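subagent[fold] <- orchestrator: predict structure for attached chain, return tokens only, no commentary.
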Amino acid sequence: MRSSGLARFFFLAIAVFVSSCTNGRWGSVSDPPPTPILSRPLGWAVINVSYSQVFDIPNSSGVVLGYYRKAAIVSVTERKKEILKDSVVSWLKNEGNEPGWIKESEIMLFDSSEKALTAAKTVVK
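subagent[fold] -> orchestrator:
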């Protein structure tokens, strides 16, 4: 008798656990809400060359969509690498006035807009 009661308890506990995980919808999967720490920008870029071209894809053979001038500040959200024969080029996806991909070698990256603003003032000098 005791093992029968224990088996019922475990069965009931598992049933409650499984039903609480599915919200009453068997077989459906829900997307978690965005986590601010995971969806925040990669950082803030300050352009440190005279002109930095903005490409449509993270590749030197992409289409040029526009450009940024020296000391421009843009938010960057993603980093990708382009592997060439002799080197590797890092690209950053920007969300500024000219959204697209810029070369990481043409910018200085900061973790806050305040630090980027301070750096941009020194780049202009």
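orchestrator: received. Logging for downstream: The radius of gyration is 25 Å. Confidence is low (pLDDT under 50) at residues 24-29.
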